[in-house]
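Supplementary Text 2. Reproducibility record for the structural model of the 142-residue chain.

All settings were left at their defaults, and a single model was retained for analysis rather than an ensemble. We include the record here because the model underlies the residue-level annotations in Supplementary Table 4.
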Amino acid sequence: MKNAFSQALKEADAERLRQDRLRALQSMYLLTLEMTRACAKEDTDRLTELLDQRQRLMERVDALSARLQAGGGAEYSEAEAARLRDLYGKLEEADAYVRRAAQEKLDEYSAVMREARKMKQGMRAYICNVRQVDGMYFDSRK
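Retained model, structure tokens:
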């Protein structure tokens, strides 16, 4: 009787952990969608804030996954597994958009920095700021 009760408690705890993990993944998806909106608006402050929140959620999901693995309750029903696959697909798609937008901005800023460096080097060609030491040279061969 005691063993059956402990088994039921373990299964209930595993179910709660699975549901918590699913909710955390759904929250992560919503944050990723918000990140796509911030990228479209080029709101870097908001994007940074959302990235920090998402990182905390990822750490929470990892911790829940580790607890599920340790407790042996990582088996999902077919419906839950389908929901997880769908959610992971949506997450990857939204994340790919954010990565592409960030890479495009990085490329744009890199091009601007390269152009500024070229302009600076071009301006140096016309400015003589090399100090020469005073002195004389004696040619002893003559």
